[in-house]
Write a structure and sequence with these properties.
The protein has 209 residues and is α+β, with helices and mostly antiparallel strands. Helices cover 15% and strands 62% of the residues. The protein has one helix at 2-33, and strands at 40-64, 69-76, 82-94, 97-109, 112-124, 133-143, 151-165, 170-183, 192-208. It starts with a helix and ends with a strand.
């Protein structure tokens, strides 16, 4: 009788251990198939913005002797591509929504000036299991040349489409509409400068990791 009880006890312990191991293995497999999403991610982009026709403007004030006062004037300037680079640190608040801080450099060709930008970006990811996104980005400029004053100067709204998706990184292309402008600190002409603004569309290539 003691032998029978010993054998039953042995098989009971062995079965319980096997079941526990099976449950643990299933849980591990489920975790591997459905990994916990990463909350923090980083993104770098290179962009080119093309101001649309008659949407590159220069505003200034000039002295009018006949009225003994200053009057404002806005003129169209030559549309030249704007080249910029961005790097953002982002946090995934929800599955479809993230918020981030962005910094980068923007180079203007007309007038020639370069500024450091700092701002924020909001991203909406409507497609499950994809890095495709709709985003809004707002940033201000800090001067890296004597031409630019510290000013609020960039707003973008666009969407990005992944061209390569891997577990740890991905690449994408983006298209956006843009309003970009900055206050001018000095002018080569005898007038009081106000600002330069550009409205147009742009394209970017980016890497997310």
């Amino acid at each position: 009788m003691k032998k029978i009880l010993t054998i039953i006890s042995f098989f009971t312990i062995a079965l319980a251990t096997a079941q526990e191991h099976e449950i643990t293995t299933e849980n591990n497999q489920e975790t591997m198939q459905n990994p916990k999403p990463r909350r923090w991610f980083y993104q770098g982009e290179v962009s080119v913005t093309f101001p649309s026709n008659n949407n590159a403007k220069y505003s200034y004030q000039y002295y009018k002797p006949s009225t003994n006062s200053y009057e404002g004037q806005t003129i169209n300037i030559s549309e030249q591509p704007i080249i910029s680079s961005d790097f953002s640190v982002n946090y995934q608040l929800f599955r479809i929504f993230s918020i981030g801080a962005v910094g980068g450099l923007t180079h203007f060709q007309n007038p020639a000036a370069t500024g450091f930008k700092l701002g924020g970006v909001l991203r909406l990811n409507p497609v499950k299991h994809s890095r495709a996104s709709i985003y809004t980005q707002v940033a201000g400029f800090l001067p890296l040349s004597n031409l630019i004053k510290t000013s609020m100067g960039e707003a973008k709204f666009g969407f990005s489409v992944p061209i390569l998706e891997r577990k740890r990184y991905g690449m994408h292309l983006a298209m956006y509409t843009s309003f970009t402008g900055f206050e001018i600190s000095k002018s080569p002409n005898p007038e009081t400068p106000d600002d330069v603004e550009y409205r147009g569309i742009g394209f970017s290539f980016g890497v997310r990791f």
